[in-house]
Amino acid sequence: MNTLVWFRQDLRTLDNQALTLACEDAKARGAKLYGVFIASPAQWQTHDMGQRQQRFLLANLNALGERLAALGIPLELMVVPWFNGTAAALKGFCKARGISRIFAGAQVEIDERRRDASLIEKGFPLHLTDEHCILPPGSVVTQGQRAGQGGAMYRVFTPFARRWREIAAARPLWPIPSPAAVAPALSFEPFPFWGDSVANSPGAASKSPGAAVSESDTACANPSEDGALALWPAGEDAALEKLRGFQQRSLARYAERRDFPAIDGTSSLSPYLALGVISPRQCLASLLEAFPEVFVSESSPARTWLNELVWREFYRHLLVAFPSLSMAKNFNPLADAIVWRNDEREFEAWKAGRTGYPLVDAAMRQLQQTGWMHNRLRMVVASFLTKHLLIDWRWGERYFREQLIDGCLAANNGGWQWAAGTGCDAQPYFRIFNPMSQSEKFDPDGRFIRKYLPEIAHWPTKALHQASGTGQVANGLFDNGLSKNDSYPSPIVEHSRARLRALEVMTVMKKG
Ligand code: FAD
Question: What residue stretches are annotated with the Photolyase/cryptochrome alpha/beta domain (predicted)?
Answer without folding.
Answer: 1-134
